[in-house]
Amino acid sequence: MLKATALVKRYGPCVTAVDGVSLEIPQGQMVGVIGRSGAGKSTLLRLINRLIDPTEGQVHFDGVDVTRLKGRRLREWRAACAMIFQQFNLVGRLDVLTNVLVGRVGHRATVPTLVKQFSRSERALAAQALERLDLADQGLQRAETLSGGQQQRVAIARALVQQPRLILADEPIASLDPGNAKRVMDALRAINREDGLTVLCNLHHISTARDTCDRIIGMQDGRVVFDGPPETLTSPIIRDLFGTEARDGDGPAWNHPPASAVA
Ligand SMILES: Nc1ncnc2c1ncn2[C@@H]1O[C@H](COP(=O)(O)OP(=O)(O)OP(=O)(O)O)[C@@H](O)[C@H]1O
């Protein structure tokens, strides 16, 4: 169980990026976080994995107050939270397999620079992850030669070898065309279902969140203004909660992402 209690993140006297968020997310849930640009979605993810510290409030995971962790235990927590980013964050000139093995670095005291410096079991884990993401044939290719969708699936494979307790995905499909976006979301959903991993995913599109997630959280001005199963996010609620620019259906609701991102 992931639990946020009265989480607040302020930047200076004027900006409250997250404003009193309390949530309970049971293990194995796939949660889509939606909201306008600047609503506080990324800040919430970064508070959970302790990339940043809250101004007030706590995050608990399975009863442990992760906001109080320091040193080795903090590093372990960060390794337990696999992050997926909009821009994939791969090392383009390195091959795909090495990029995936980077996910093991949090489990090691030293950082290997060559594939052969990883153990046989680590390499097997990486190969399995690539197979699962349908990238078994691309292992020796330079990451920069892959399509955006393939690169994001490499990033998911890297997250898998991290053997995380949860996956935090920050706009994972915002740079992808609809076909690749669907493949990436399907991959995250499959991992969520098959491994029982909690996935918390910031998304631009109501339709993607509806199609993929068990639960949708809507944020506005740092606060949670909607929290429920996808079928309860009706058009009137979208309009009530997110203003007149909100639209239902397949288009982006409020963020005006690039046309290529419209799923
Ligand atoms: N390091 C920072 N310093 C100052 N203000 C910040 C910082 N990080 C975020 N903010 C502000 O906090 C608010 C929430 O930002 P956040 O990035 O969490 O929103 P978001 O919903 O993820 O938006 P987007 O969809 O554009 O990524 C915004 O007003 C943003 O400008």
From TrEMBL:
InterPro entries: AAA+_ATPase, ABC_transporter-like_ATP-bd, ABC_transporter-like_CS, ABC_transpr_PhnC, MetN_ABC_transporter-like, P-loop_NTPase. Pfam families: ABC_tran. Keywords: ATP-binding, Cell membrane, Membrane, Nucleotide-binding, Translocase, Transport. This is Phosphonate transport system ATP-binding protein. Residues 2-246 form the ABC transporter domain. Residues 244-263 are annotated as: Disordered. Coiled coil: none annotated. One of its GO terms (cellular component) is membrane. GO terms for molecular function: ABC-type phosphonate transporter activity; ATP binding; ATP hydrolysis activity. It comes from Rhodospira trueperi. SMART domains: AAA. The keyword Transcription does not apply. CDD domains: ABC_PhnC_transporter (cd03256).
